[in-house]
């Protein structure tokens, strides 16, 4: 059962206590404005949030709430107008473009809705592509562990056109993990998949956290997908509206329904500050 928490006080740095895992990514007073003057759009409006190590966190919100903008700024794919972003202890706004590219290549993994596989490469070649581009040695023991976890051992020599949508997305997930990143950002990773394939991908993302000690931040509009997370963070109008810990799908649906009823976050659903400790639970069973 998910637990709605009261508002957390704003802090200038992640809380460091024995009960709270270290933050792999943090934002402080994050603002993103598109355009200027009367046509300016404030996509992010002073966001403060931490994403703890060894957790799967889902970011939810209506269209235009700022969830994808937040992820892009956190991942270094877009630059905030003001505020700060820290990844694995590194303040990324102070990095040159060259160092930022190196950080994204070595410390950040990405999973996108469209898979982004190279059609002429095999599954194995797609998985190791980031390491090959960086001219980095492939740790074969880790490669084998990731491949076995994603269940693609018998498909490694197949090209994307020979794989199902779910298998292609699992290749993309393995590609994101093979470099042992500090954090993985997944943008609507199941948006193009049927329910069975989506369940396979979501179960793997959860296992990658629980069994492989990864950290995953996932943007989604789907309550079922979000129910695989340890924590769900809600955005509205560019601001953090609240969070749930260890939620069920029904917990998430209830929170969304309450917010829709009165146009505001449900009472007691708090804007998250430093990540509160949450319990681990098994990934939901795919009903398909």
Oligomerization category of the chains in this entry: single chain
Radius of gyration: 18 Å
Could you list the spans in which at least 5 consecutive residues all have pLDDT below 50?
A: 6-18, 273-288
Helix content: 25-40%
Mean pLDDT: 83
* Separation of the first and last Cα atoms: 22 Å
Give the total of beta strands. Answer: 11
Strands in their spatial order, largest beta sheet: 1-11-10-4-9-8-7
Based on secondary structure, the structural category is: alpha/beta
Largest sheet: 7 strands, mixed
Individual helix count: 8
Question: SSE order, as H and E?
Answer: EEEEHEEHEHHHEHEHEEH
Shape: globular
What does this structure look like?
The chain has 288 residues and is an alpha/beta fold. The protein is 31% helix and 23% strand. The chain has helices at residues 67-74, 97-107, 123-133, 140-150, 165-177, 195-210, 223-226, 249-262, and strands at 3-4, 23-34, 41-52, 56-60, 82-87, 90-91, 108-112, 183-187, 216-219, 231-236, 239-245. The strands form two sheets. It has a seven-stranded mixed β-sheet with strand order 1-11-10-4-9-8-7, with helices on both faces. A four-stranded antiparallel β-sheet has the order 3-2-5-6, with helices on one face. Helix 4 (140-150) runs antiparallel to helix 5 (165-177). The chain is globular, with a radius of gyration of 18 Å. Mean pLDDT is 83; it is low at 6-18 and 273-288.
